[in-house]
Amino acid sequence: MGRAPCCDKASVKRGPWSPEEDEQLRSYVQRHGIGGNWIALPQKAGLNRCGKSCRLRWLNYLRPNIKHGGYTEQEDQIIWSLYSSIGSRWSIIASKLPGRTDNDVKNYWNTKLKKKAMAAVAASAATGGAFAAPATPPPALSPAASASSSVTSSGGDVRFAAYPPQHHQGLTMRFDAPAPQRRQQHTELAPVPPAAAVAQLDATSGVWARQPAPASDAVAAALDDVFLPDLVGGGEQLFPYGDFFGGLQDRAALELSACYFPNMAEMWGAAAASDAKPQGLCNTLT
DNA sequence: AAGAAATGCAACCGCGGCACC
DNA sequence: GGGTGCCGCGGTTGCATTTCT
User: Fold this and answer.
1) CA A16 to CA A18: how far, in whole Å?
2) pLDDT tens column, A140-161
3) Protein A204 CA to nucleic acid C10 C1', in Å?
4) Is strand B less than 7 A from the beta carbon of A9?
5) For residues A230 and A182, what is the distance between their CA atoms, to the nearest angstrom?
6) Which long-range CB contacts under 8 A does A141-150 form with residues at least 24 apart?
7) Spatial distance from the CA of A15 to the C1' of B12 (Å)
8) Residue A275: half-sphere exposure toward Cβ, Cα within 13 Å
9) Are the beta carbons of A118 and A155 closer than 8 angstroms?
10) Nearest nucleotide (C1') to the CA of residue A94?
11) Among A51, A91, A156, A199, which residue's beta carbon has the most beta carbons within 10 A?
């Protein structure tokens, strides 16, 4: 007993969109909006397409101000940093990159950026670069986790220090990790150390510890640009760390990470205990 | 020049969340 | 409180294009 299909796949057109279909959808949405119902939209717009297909086409291609390709170094840094913290939550990552879609970011990561990351790690390993490279998730998630002192680029849960790896070694980046648990499994989400917070796994205690080392200037500037506007409201300086990422200190890291990179395991665990939605998540993440 | 392999990306698929009844 | 249907997400697929041999 599976879910009923959203549309009759045999009777709707599939595959690439023609310019005529694009124009039909674009003009309909511009005139009427999506009307809160993608399933009904194709019929109203006179399109022989599945509603989901229309939604995807609009969101990923026809929507105004969409950018394709031409990723900047700053965007690379943001993607790297966010991926290290929250994994493949492409919609969240894309929401921090104006004009980018989750699909586009995902494709960009899978086809280019991941390879770039692997190459950087391989190069660093070859030159004896020092990377924190735990082969398993942090102990808070996996009690059996053990620290590894070596870096491997041959697949699996490989982590490296940061973007660019040779410049700051505090951040932990999972570029080849298994996909994180889906949303409904928040209690099992890896409490990967916040990208902002510089963390290293203590091989003796098995505890992730924040380090006072600052992020590189480039990464700090990129992250400041992206996140601080959300934290500074209406001319009033609500968030006291104007150069937060550039001057990472424990308290600041904790405050921002609590907002953008909350410890999911703790939060959702507490939420499960109280049978309530977790509190404290930024709107941008929920 | 032609075929093979690699790459890039649009589109599809299936699932879970959530709102509504 | 349970059922239903839509939305949004992340993973995967398929195909066109580019590069290599």
Assistant:
1) 7
2) 223 222 222 222 333 333 333 3
3) 36
4) yes
5) 26
6) A141/A188, A141/A189, A141/A190, A141/A191, A141/A265, A145/A206, A146/A206, A147/A201, A147/A202, A147/A203, A147/A206, A149/A203, A150/A125
7) 8
8) 0
9) no
10) C9
11) A199
Per residue in A255-266, pLDDT tens? 444 444 444 444
Q: Name the helix (H) or strand (E) containing A77.
A: helix A73-86
Q: Name the one residue in this structure whose structure tokens are 């924190």.
A: A132
Instruction: Write the DSSP assignment of A25-40 as a string of letters.
Output: HHHHHHHH--TT-TTT
Q: Please report, rounded to whole angstroms, the spatial distance between the CA atom of protein residue A70 and the C1' atom of nucleotide C21.
A: 30
Which token pair is A185?
Answer: 């499994």
Give A183-187 contacts, CB < 8 A, sequence gap 24+: A186/A264, A186/A265, A186/A267, A186/A268, A186/A271, A186/A278, A187/A264, A187/A265, A187/A268, A187/A269, A187/A272
User: pLDDT tens for residues A110-144?
Assistant: 888 887 777 776 776 667 654 433 333 332 223 22
The protein footprint on chain B, as nucleotides within 7 A of a CB, is: 7-17
Strands (DSSP E) contained in chain A are 159-160, 173-174, 199-201, 208-210
How high is the pLDDT of residue A4?
A: 54
The reply to whether A19 Cβ lies less than 7 angstroms from strand B is no
Strand B at less than 7 A from CB of A128: no
In angstroms, the CA of A161 and the C1' of C8 are apart by 32
Q: State whether the beta carbon of A107 lies below 7 angstroms from any atom of strand B.
A: yes
C7 C1' – A37 CA distance, angstroms? Answer: 9
